[in-house]
User: Fold this.
Amino acid sequence: MSSIPKTMKAVVLNKHVENFHNLNEYVSIEEVNVPQPKDGEVLIRVARSTVNPSDLSFVKGSYGQKPTFPMIPGFEGCGTVVKSGGGLLGWRLVNDRVAFAVPHGGAWAEYVTCSSETVITLPNKLQLDDCANAIVNPLTALSFIEIAKDNNANTILHTAAASALGKQLLKLSRKNGINVICVVRRNEQAEECKSLGAKHVFISTSETFDSDLKECCTSLNCKIAFEAVAGELTGRVFNALAKKGTLYVYGALSEQACSAINPAALIFDEKTLKGFWLTPYVNEKSLFSKMRITWSVPELLESKDITSPIAGHYPIERIAEAVSSYISNMTAGKVLIVPPCSIHNSPLAQQTTNNDIQITPVNSTTTTTTIISTQPTVEAVKNKIETFVDNTQQIVSDTKENIENKIENRIENRIDSIEDKLEDAKENIEDKLENRIENRIDSIEDKLED
Assistant:
């Protein structure tokens, strides 16, 4: 493990982006201090970070969380843990390859700090490119499957179905026996969905789109839809859903307000329009639910069910070109940012399929940087297993103690409640008896007086 430098190279956002074609007016490439992990956090040397629609929304200022300038953007990536800020899990993660998501940004840099509870440990045999996309899209797709199951839905509808997320959702839905009605914009996107097994694909620019989609939703009793485009398409999809259906809006790729919603669908068809944001959806889950989801990620990555094609690799210095490339064709695949530390001195760097990393060049000449592969030793594997067992035992112990405390508190609260009610009942009975005695005495006195 090489030493941790005092400074690092990072993309710094200085103001809200108004025009992505002139991104360099809003961001700068700077040498900044390497962040220090706090208690419960780890420091990660970034190997890959991604460009997602949520990143674009964030730098524009239209995301749920607002940037405070200057700051480093980027929500997701992968790398290796090089330092722990303390805590039960942190020190056990040092030297591990992990996927990470940072809710407040920071991934477009050589180093990033992250909560030790939110990283996902990944085996070294997985490709770095796959590890970089292991959280945002996979957890969103898994959440959609969970929502469908919770609503006993055999069929769901998904717009932007040819996107990286759309393709993952198609694969996971097929494994879970759920039909997906795909909505796309172009013929070539429709063919991509069909090649992944989609049986119901509709092109939104078709003259018969609305009637065809409504007929399909009615025949399949489709009551759950996930909508990423916004604008007029939200209303068109909402109106097509079967009665008592629910549409979840989770994106705004069109950058337009949701429209064209028929009030009759809300009133007479009893349909529901809701928003979906992955961060609070996951945070509201229990510890075991979170563990169940995150533990499934490595296996799904290995089976290629949640991997995405890669459209290009770009060094940090070419962030403007990377973003422009992604915006120009989001369905072509993910665009990855490769920090200098990953190219030159990353201890977890791994060979890709072609035995090298292809950094997308400015001109047509391909630049190739060979990355050294590291294979885990038997001792390392043994240590990983022991660490996993220790972590699991600690989690079970903590959970048991937490449950016992909750039960004890509930019993104490219940006893206090009963005692309070008994005391109130006692006082109430005493008051009633006193009133009745007084009334009886008054009655007797009145009769004697008569």
